[in-house]
């Protein structure tokens, strides 16, 4: 969080690359694909035709072919770098357990596919490095007793490697990324509204960076392969080829063991230990009108809209998949029936969280605000995953924390202000891009801005609302913001001084 805060200062929140590592991975994939198609047009399979065709691109057509080759290589490297950072980030932010295991598990074959795609790419150049990669790969494969004869023998003499072999390698190098794309699609099946495109500024900046690198340090070959000579020394691409030096040092058995144990550990990581059991959201059909908002807003595709089962005059009803639901409460914030103004009967919205029901939330707000005193009484709505708001509680500050800021129905803000329970409202939660449940902060912002249902009513004076997004490391700046806000509220005087002339569009 501290590192991301630092990046916020450099890039601004909107272009902070740490917030869109997965999207950058997709972006690099497209650069690799487009540059790869270009290089392939000029690529010749065969010995030494392959080497010569790549040399032609690099030296004679350097102004486009050479750049494309370099882009192909550097974007591939960047993809590995992004993937590693993405894994570390998802792990560090605990976004891989519970209902989120699916994205984690589907990520693991992607690691293998990316590395295999890169390795086969290096074979195709047919330079000294290709020879080293080819020999090392076949030696590694020969350790697994699946081939009748050692395939490393192919590298004993030039006559053993033919055009068909090259065609097979080219096919693998094209097929594996295509399959990777398919797995990348599966990877996001439980990530609703996933972000697969980085913000434009970041995309342009990244592209310029790759272009500069391609021009300053163009990708080159390392001399044509000669099977009668051992390929040494070679300059390695450490993003893709780290496994071979390991095999040289520790032997193929140890390397295979390490790779399989590593993959196995990654596979069981979401259950080491498993996430705390959560009680999923529940739908109350008596209050659900089938509007679909909760299904659209759920960040994990945990809600399906199905045909009405209770005979009510609506077409659909919401159904929660308890195995996918992570109990973030964002659906509660999106339900039009979740409003604290309701007094007739029990406060039961169409969808609710049993662990923190809307009725309990209202009760907590009522109790906490009743004791407030002073000229600038504040209600702080916070989020369990961000800065802990309880420590800011005081004689003029009441706090309540929810699983996610996105759970807050905007009507709660209207409620505390219009009932004069406080003079101002503070909304806080994870920083933009860092929201633990991905979309809570974005949806709430849109609702407060009037761009997403349910909207904050127009009559609510905006100058009495402070939005101060703060992660666990932002305590000091949050405190400063609150102190300043208190001063502003004191200047405004008690709520009701202003004259609400704007008509409320929602008519609630
Ligand atoms: C080429 C490699 C990869 C790409 C392009 C990629 C892309 C993405 C994207 C675009 C997202 C959605 C981010 C969002 O919208 O918030 C995502 C989420 C995720 N990815 Fe990856 N990913 C890759 C590899 C991996 C790997 C190797 C792992 C783990 C082993 C992994 C684990 C996850 C997890 C846990 C999520 C979060 C899902 C959630 O928030 O519930 N990814 N990935
Ligand atoms: S609490 Fe609601 S929004 Fe959150 S995962 Fe469950 S169903 Fe989806
Ligand atoms: S948002 Fe509320 S009313 Fe609309 S479908 Fe979901 S539970 Fe039903």
What is the share of helical residues?
40-55%
Q: In the CATH scheme, what's the topology name of the largest domain? A: Cytochrome Bc1 Complex, Chain C
Would you tell me the overall average pLDDT?
93
Give the H and E element order.
Answer: HHHHHHHHHHEHEEHEHEEHEHEH
How many individual helices?
16
Name the CATH superfamily classification of the largest domain.
Cytochrome Bc1 Complex, Chain C
Ligand list: protoporphyrin IX containing FE, iron/sulfur cluster
Give the overall silhouette.
Answer: elongated
Give the strand line-up of the largest sheet.
Answer: 6-5-7-8
- Count of β-strands: 8
Q: Largest sheet, described in full?
A: 4 strands, parallel
Oligomer: single chain
Gyration radius, rounded: 29 Å
Indicate how many domains the architecture comprises: 2
Beta-strand percentage range = 5-15%
* CATH hierarchy, class of the largest domain: Mainly Alpha
Q: What separation lies between the terminal Cα atoms? A: 39 Å
Q: What ranges have pLDDT less than 50 throughout 5 or more consecutive residues?
A: 501-508
Which class do the helix and strand fractions yield? alpha/beta
CATH architecture term of the largest domain? Up-down Bundle
SSE topology:
Blueprint: H1 2-11, H2 21-42, H3 49-60, H4 62-92, H5 101-124, H6 128-143, H7 163-187, H8 200-216, H9 243-250, H10 252-268, E1 282-283, H11 293-297, E2 303-307, E3 316-320, H12 330-334, E4 351-352, H13 358-370, E5 378-383, E6 397-402, H14 411-418, E7 424-427, H15 440-449, E8 465-467, H16 475-492
Parallel strand pairs: 5-6, 5-7, 7-8
Antiparallel strand pairs: 1-4, 2-3
The structure holds protoporphyrin IX containing FE and iron/sulfur cluster (2 copies).
Protoporphyrin IX containing FE (HEM) binds next to helix 2, helix 4, helix 5 and helix 7.
